[in-house]
Amino acid sequence: MTYDFKALMDFFPYFLPAAWLTIVVSFFGIVLGVVLGLLTAFARISSKPVFNLPARFYIFVIRGTPLLLQILFLYYSLRGIFNFEAMTSAIVALGVHNGAYIAEIFRGAIQSIAVGQMEAARSLGMTYRKAILRIVLPQAFKRAIPSLGNQFIIALKDSSLASAITIKELLLKAQQLGASNFKMMEMLTIAAFFYLFYTSIFTWLFHKIEVKLSASGNA
Amino acid sequence: MITIKELEKWFDQLHVLKGIDLTVNPSEVVVIIGASGSGKSTLLRCINFLEEFQKGEIVIEGKVINQQDEKMINEMRSRVGMVFQHFNLFPHMSVLQNVIEGPIQVKGMAQEEAVKMGRCYLDEVGLLDKEDAYPSMLSGGQKQRVAIARALAMEPLAILFDEPTSALDPELVGEVLSVMKNLARDGMTMVIVTHEMGFAREVADRVVYMDEGLIVEQGTPQQVFDSPQKERTQSFLSRVR
Description:
The structure holds two protein chains of two kinds. By secondary structure, chain A is mainly α.
């Protein structure tokens, strides 16, 4: 078996629609994950059981089961109930999955902000809400950025699992092409190239943000 | 101005304040001294409702403050400043932003007016040239002076100081104390928890000695420092001198 370098170039254009799909699934999955994560983080921190118990349960279930299972589970259940397309199911599954992890990232960041910050804000007469929004969250976001960057990269790669529910993203595309042209290694290489390209962009972007934020001063 | 009546507080089983009565008059400087664990910081934090208490009441300007009433507490806090041992400046904001955050967010003051006033108070603590600096770029003494300017910018009736120089290097204590002396001279009502006995003697109108959750003795600095009546006060003072 020989490795066909020429095939890398020849088949590259066939991957472009799949490369786009990977972006779409990942992007919306991450956005949904951040929204769910932020809400869940606050629910989890709350002292009221009505908020923190569902949040704990959500995190418990998501962290304790494989993403592939979650994708399949949501695909079959959402399809039955809402007549969702595979694409929507994939985005919802990725979002719900990442929401649990991002919630823990935000929770850790918020709780790492010294109690004194909240006390100083409250001693000025600020409401709890205002103190959270103006004083705690901006600092927590800054602290969460490295972990968030890491989680976004994981989410991007995890979008490949959407292949299990017929989403023709990079991995499924590579498998389908490879099965028909018998150049599986080459097709997987092309997919790998796209993943590396995307994750490099993320890494670079988050590095930029970190540098910029640390320049604006922090204790 | 501030009246504390029969205040009692427990941390679970631990009885930390065992019935405190204290009145602070307008323009008075009350300095609370005592060993660690005597309850003096806890008392100060109760006055700002950063700690809950189980018995007694706190009256500010004739109004009994209800611990359960968030709105009332916020309103009261906006008029009683607090300076912390560890400064607690907002690290993501510049010095000037730290000072004007309260007036803008709590009092709804216009940005322009707040900036003007903020600069005025930064000038008062001698840090006008640092308005664009971030807290991480300042020395401890400078940080504490910004924290004092932040409290002043709310134009409070009184300021509570919780061991304001305890976290400072010895050579930086003086600059903070001198700012506080100026405030005292200008008639600011202050309640100060401190271990700086020389400072207490110099600025206090009244010194309060606390031990094991009780006020043991109080009086003018001369009375408390030079001729303490209670044995516990005498023994504490002989240890800190």
